[in-house]
């Protein structure tokens, strides 16, 4: 659920008061995608995700196209997630608000994660499980605190109008559909889970179950957070003042508890975005390893470290 830490602001930039509707539509599309992946992952137990699924269902050419499209997607995921860490940490390190300082920090972060993954995925995933549990608990606390102290449903429903002339915070239809496209970014991650099928115990059960749990959790969290966000501030403030760190903006606006949570959100937002960058790196390395195995990438990508048994070449190239 890390994408909400940067996707909410850009979704609100286009969808304005209709942001919850944009997230609902994106969530419906995501649900169909997640159910499809759950079905396929119960049958195909190898790394490669949809590149493997299309290879078995269609042919190598379609698999090759799907694989390369996904590799580009992973590169973007690693880059955005790493670059979004700085805005959350600037509460502790103001120099990270400078673009070039944040770029340098992001590059160092990517190579730190690469080292962690070369040493072994078990260390990497244990790290991720602890941090993801913390962020789910924190987001639920934000939703509960916001529901008690902030949520104003009449205002929310009044704002959720599309293409109404002269209505405050009503987006045009083209702008709203752009918002839906941005909201889709908030539901990434299913492919990364499918990539780990070859390394999971009892993948026919654990991978589909994990995908379905992720689907339910994300939809609840994203809708709850968006409602609290639009109760806490106007769509203009969410999409401009807090476009880079929307969750920090929400917490700042919560009475009483907000001032105590702001530093915690800075730490947690940064941590969960690191987890997302790590998931992208794991996904890219497993996918390119799979493509190398089937001669869709140079064979050097199908190389495991003798010491750590991890795909070193794939990790280094995509880092």
End-to-end Cα distance, whole Å, is 22 Å
| Arithmetic mean of pLDDT | 89
Structural class: mainly alpha
Query: How would you classify the quaternary structure?
Result: single chain
SSE arrangement:
Layout: H1 4-15, H2 19-41, H3 50-57, H4 60-89, H5 99-119, H6 121-149, H7 153-159, H8 173-185, H9 190-195, H10 203-232, H11 235-241, H12 246-253, H13 258-293, H14 312-318
Helix pairs in contact: 1-8, 1-11, 2-8, 2-10, 3-4, 4-5, 4-13, 5-13, 6-10, 6-13, 10-12, 12-13, 13-14
What can you see in these coordinates?
This protein is mostly helical and 319 residues long. It has 14 helices and no strands. α13 crosses α14. The protein starts with a helix and ends with a helix. The mean pLDDT is 89.
In short:
74% of the residues lie in helices and 0% in strands. It has helices spanning 4-15, 19-41, 50-57, 60-89, 99-119, 121-149, 153-159, 173-185, 190-195, 203-232, 235-241, 246-253, 258-293, 312-318.
Features:
319 residues; 74% helix; mainly alpha
